Amino acid sequence: MKHNNVLPNQHFNKQWQLRVKTWFNQPGAKRRRRLNRIKKAALIAPRPIDGLLRPAVRAPTVRYNTKLRAGRGFTLDELEAAGIRRKEARTIGIAVDHRRKNRSEESLQLNVARLKEYKSKLIVFPKKLNRIKKGDTPREGLVGASQLPVGALLPIVQPVPTETTRVLTEKPKLGAYYTLRMARADKKYKGIREKRKKAAAEEDKNKK
């Protein structure tokens, strides 16, 4: 070996074949998931495949609060406004979250309307067909009832923005930036100006 070079020391016996991750079971896993979905749908029928009805809520932080998404459950105030009892809600497929609180009237009214729409379309199957209890759907309403597919249980629709641009017909007399800077300066120098004014008044009084 000549010069100050790196000595040849290649590592060719790492057995990389033992550490390769394969994904040959992808088609089989896909088929298994599909069969599990079909099995679950048959198990919970005639209930909707989506599961419980969820409220429409806004995500936290300024970055995401412009979009509506499904929440954990309806608040107790929303259930009360819709005329649904707390314990009754879970029996008819409505999720309940006793921790969440309504911070605005808009969110309350939105979810109350959602509950009322769900209640108007709800079909409650009796436990025994020959013994229909109060709150159950009559036999005529059970004819033609089918299980709702995925995504069909009152999907959440994003609201359309209603803000419009306005054209200024006349130029404002004072700019917002100028007004804010002057208010900031007046606040900053208020004590100094009052002190100078008081000193000037005392000096005039002494001259007399």
Describe the overall structure:
Helix content is 40%, strand content 3%. It has 7 helices and 2 strands. The protein is an all-alpha fold and 208 residues long. Helix 2 packs across helix 4.
Model regions low in confidence, pLDDT < 50 over at least 5 residues: none
Distance between the termini: 106 Å
Number of helices: 7
- Bin the helical content: 40-55%
What is the H/E string? HEEHHHHHH
Strand content: under 5%
Major beta sheet, strand line-up: 1-2
How big is the Rg? 35 Å
Largest sheet: 2 strands, antiparallel
Q: Provide the residue-averaged pLDDT.
A: 90
Features:
40% helix, two-stranded antiparallel sheet, 208 residues
Strand and helix map with partners:
Elements: H1 26-44, E1 56-58, E2 68-70, H2 76-82, H3 86-91, H4 105-121, H5 139-142, H6 176-188, H7 190-207
Antiparallel strand pairs: 1-2
